[in-house]
Amino acid sequence: MSDHAIVAGLDELIPFGDWRTKLEEAERSQCVTPAERKAILVEAFSQSLKQLGNYDYVAETTILRPLRDRPLYCLFYATRHPKGIEVFRDCQVKALWKESETRAANKIKHAAILTGQGEFFGSLHDMAPDKLESFLDNQCIEAERSLLELAPKSSVLTSFEKLRAQVLARHVVRPSDVNRIAARLHDEKQLLFPDWEPGKRVPKPHYRVRRA
User: Fold this and answer.
1) Which residue in 62, 68, 178, 200 has the most C-beta neighbors within 10 A?
2) Contact 148, 185 (CB under 8 A)
3) Nearest to residue 111, comparing CAs of 102, 97, 119, 130?
4) What is the SS3 assignment for 62?
5) Model confidence over 105-131: pLDDT tens digits?
6) Could you tell me where the DSSP H helices lie in the chain?
């Protein structure tokens, strides 16, 4: 990051988000991780793309290297319609599961070739905790916090479709996940839906919503 050519290129690519100042502040802490550096750049690039393209929602997905748990590149998706971010997250989660399966199989195959102990590595894979499942579970927890944070607290309500799209732009969750979380928060009286109809298990996009 100290290379002048790299910095100049990033300044042109990411004109908004104040990434350099945030990165310098993080570096001064002396315990910043590569993931935290990446998060700073991803957030700034998302902000730049949103502002320059006049997009309402921007989301990112990371493509990992085939045999190492390190990013290869990031893909960004931008849209001006709630439906766009809904479809993207559904497709992303499906793709992440497929990527996880493929990478696990490739790692086992690679280890088996190097050691000749394919059965042993296959057993380790079956016993290992699934990092993707843990990641997605954590994203649902973060999505719940965002639902409560973004929902208006005043008498001016917003549509659930708009609120859900804002949450989807922040977190790797499916629309059905947000529906399920919102329904539970409704049952717990933390979110208020004045249009909720009897017998409905999850909120409809046109429902108005606010925090209790």
Assistant:
1) 178
2) yes
3) 119
4) strand
5) 777 777 767 776 655 555 545 434 478
6) 4-13, 19-28, 34-53, 82-115, 118-127, 131-150, 160-170, 175-187
Q: How many Å apart are CA 208 and CA 192, to the nearest integer?
A: 8
- For residue 96 the two structure tokens come to 């992440």
- Residue spans of the domains in the chain: they are 55-211
* CB 79 within 8 Å of CB 56: yes
What Rg do the C-alpha atoms of the chain give, in angstroms?
A: 21
DSSP-assigned beta bridge partners for residue 73: 63
Q: Nearest-5° angle of CA 180, CA 205, CA 137?
A: 25
Cα–Cα nearest to 86, from 149, 172, 150: 172
The pLDDT tens digits of the residues spanning 146-176 come to: 999 999 998 889 999 999 999 999 999 999 9
Percent of the chain predicted with pLDDT > 90: 63
Model pTM score: 0.83
Residue with tokens 């990992």: 64
Chain segment 53-100, per-residue pLDDT in tens: 999 999 999 988 877 788 899 999 999 999 999 999 999 999 998 888
Residues in the chain: 212
Supply the DSSP string of 151-166, one letter for each residue: S--SS--EEHHHHHHH
